[in-house]
Specification:
Layout lengths: L1 H28 L3 E6 L3 H15 L3 E6 L1 H9 L6 E3 L4 H8 L9 E6 L1 E5 L22 E4 L5 H12 L3 H4 L3 E4 L2 H9 L5 E5 H6 L5 E2 L8 E7 L6 H12 L1 H9 L11
Parallel strand pairs: 1-2, 1-3, 6-7
Antiparallel strand pairs: 3-10, 4-10, 5-8, 5-9
Length: 262
């Protein structure tokens, strides 16, 4: 009888431990995956996350901003799980400084530039053309080439066309490509170079600038080494690199990518 009571007590204690562990796991799973994402990709990511959460049950929290600012936040311990940058330079630097999970750096999108004019109607008799660049306007908008990946690429386009010197004194530089797009759309400046995805998302006319006019805009993601949610972060990475997600990304104005860790 005493032996039976001892076995029963032991079984109940095991059940209590299992229940406690289950509660801890449940609590851990309810913690949202914190995703730091470049402003240019935020609208597309939010569209993709609907399917991701539906298929996996993983909750997400999107923190949108400038890649440079979030890069510095990560280096100072910001509790992000995944970082989707607008470039490849910052993910590489985080990798070199051992801030990311080994082999997690991947190219999830490749940006495209477009010439956009807020004074040019979709129904205009003459289509918008890159020929407009040969006659510099009084003001021309690009993202700041010193800090913004899309601005750097815009400078490379003007340099490729032999027009950089002609444009330097006329430039209105946005902090990032989001600010540049807003400046043109509000007609504060009527012509400039933006992300093609911004035009696609807002159903606006523009002219895609050939990719060979500038260095590739490789937007890369990394999983933060200090993350407590690595399993969910890996699932997100796999989801974004899947053929279906890549097709969706391209449909919103990004170029094809081979998904390599280049």
């Amino acid at each position: 009888m005493l032996r039976f009571i001892l076995v029963l007590i032991f079984a109940i204690s095991l059940l209590g431990i299992s229940s406690s562990k289950a509660q801890q796991l449940s609590k851990g799973n309810s913690k949202p995956l914190r995703i730091a994402v470049a402003a240019n990709f935020t609208p597309v990511l939010k569209i993709l996350l609907k399917d991701f959460s539906k298929n996996t049950g993983i909750k997400t929290q999107v923190i949108s901003g400038a890649s440079g600012a979030m890069f510095l936040q990560i280096k100072h311990g910001a509790p992000y799980d995944v970082f989707l940058s607008a470039d490849s330079r910052r993910p590489k630097e985080l990798e070199q400084a051992d801030y990311i999970l080994k082999n997690s750096r991947k190219t999830y999108a490749r940006g495209q530039l477009a010439l956009y004019s807020s004074s040019h109607s979709m129904h205009a008799s003459e289509p918008l053309s890159l020929d407009l660049l040969s006659s510099p306007p009084a003001r021309f908008a690009i993202a700041n080439p010193d800090i913004a990946p899309y601005g750097k690429a815009a400078k490379e386009v003007l340099t490729h066309l032999g027009l950089w010197k002609n444009y330097q004194s006329r430039l209105i530089k946005g902090i990032n490509i989001g600010q540049t797009f807003a400046q043109i759309r509000s007609k504060g400046v009527t012509l400039g170079i933006v992300s093609n995805s911004q035009l696609v998302l807002n159903n606006l006319p523009g002219v895609i600038i050939p990719n060979n006019y500038h260095q590739p805009i490789k937007q890369q993601l990394v999983i933060i080494r200090a993350s407590k949610n690595k399993a969910a972060a890996k699932k997100l990475s796999q989801f974004l690199l899947s053929a279906k997600s890549q097709a969706t990304i391209v449909s919103y104005g990004y170029a094809q990518t081979n998904k390599a860790k280049s």
